[in-house]
Specification:
The protein is mainly beta. The chain has one helix at about 1-15, and strands at about 20-25, 35-40, 45-50, 55-60, 65-70, 75-80, 85-90, 95-100, 105-110, 115-120, 125-130, 135-140, 145-155, 160-165, 170-175, 180-185, 190-195, 205, 210-215, 220-225, 230-235, 240-250, 255-260, 265-270, 275-280, 290, 295-300, 325-330. It contains one helix and 28 strands.
């Protein structure tokens, strides 16, 4: 009996919660929905998509310090500090708004494929890549000239992207539940593989050191992918409505933001196995996120909702976002 008790205590210690909680909320207000959120930890700034604009938030001061306006259905945001530029995908105008990181002024708007969604900076080629959900392709852009290099097919509907630092990009294909590998220097798809049993992957994060990818899946799981083989080597349970994913290399933690049940799942390797070690309560609808690996914070976008209207037969009615309730959840230890 004593041995069983001791073993139970050891197991409990191993799977003890990581101690994450909501530290604060940064009020933004205004109206409209949102999609991706990005962080520039060295500048202590968060860029939050918000309807027809992007809110620029000082994370130290905990307040909005600027806005990037005249946008058209914002989806993704990426920054390239060495060029002093940021990039915002416009789903409605099939373009990317390029802005100056200091002044927030628009400096270019090249055209992309249809309905650009996620956007990534690839550090080896130093190129920007948009992933276009309606035309099932990607557009490579040179941030020096703000000009399009090439658009190329990715073979399905792309979602989130992640770069490994060696010239490769990885992207989820939502409609076929696959992962693809892209050669950034010669923009094209090199490999693609099934993510089964993962269904409808959205968020994607990367552990560069250990060569692993983490895909947030619609069927309440996170798939762990081995990059060299491009095979799913593990799955871990998450919450409902998973959309975003992130990874903190300093702590070895992967995250899945689950807007359906208002949780943030934390996945960690324990005794050689990837396990869900904590589900942090956030807010319903907090589905997108970004990880600040410098300060070990997770930022999620959220808002308050009113009662759902009566639904038409066979359809689902969404509750309305209450005006002036948009905010950022700051989660940490």
């Amino acid at each position: 009996m004593k041995k069983l008790v001791i073993a139970g205590l050891v197991a409990a210690a191993v799977f003890a919660a990581e101690g994450y909680k909501i530290i604060t909320k940064i009020k933004i207000g205004g109206t409209g929905g949102w999609d991706y959120v990005a962080v520039d930890p060295n500048a202590d700034r968060v860029y939050a998509s918000h309807g027809t604009l992007v809110e620029v938030v000082d994370t130290k001061a905990g307040k909005v310090v600027g806005q990037i306006t005249q946008l058209h259905g914002v989806h993704g945001v990426a920054v390239a500090p060495e060029f002093g530029k940021g990039f915002i995908t416009n789903g409605q105008s099939n373009s990317v708004t390029i802005f100056d990181l200091k002044t927030l002024a628009k400096v270019g708007e090249p055209q992309t494929g249809q309905n650009p969604d996620s956007v990534c900076f690839e550090p080896k080629t130093k190129h920007i890549f948009t992933f276009n959900g309606k035309s099932n392709d990607s557009t490579a852009i040179d941030p020096k000239t703000n000009e399009v290099i090439k658009s190329f097919s990715v073979g399905g509907k792309p979602e989130e992207c992640a770069a490994d630092g060696t010239g490769k990009l990885y992207v989820n294909l939502e409609d076929s539940s696959e992962i693809i590998e892209i050669d950034a220097a010669n923009p094209s798809v090199l490999r693609h593989a099934s993510l089964a049993p993962c269904e409808s992957p959205s968020g994607l994060a990367i552990d560069i050191k250990n060569k692993k990818l983490f895909a947030a899946c619609d069927n309440k799981m996170m798939a762990v992918i081995d990059i060299p083989s491009l095979k799913v080597i593990a799955t871990a349970p998450t919450g409902a409505g998973a959309d975003g994913a992130g990874f903190d290399p300093g702590l070895g933690l992967a995250f899945s933001s689950n807007g359906g049940d208002g949780t943030l799942s934390i996945i960690k390797q324990v005794n050689g196995k990837y396990e869900n070690v904590e589900n942090v309560s956030t807010e319903r609808g907090a589905r997108t996120m970004t990880v600040d690996s410098k300060n070990h914070r997770v930022y999620l976008l959220a808002a308050e909702y009113g009662p759902a209207p009566a639904a038409e037969a066979g359809k689902r009615a969404r509750p309305p976002i209450l005006p002036d309730s948009f905010h950022i959840l700051v989660v940490g230890r």
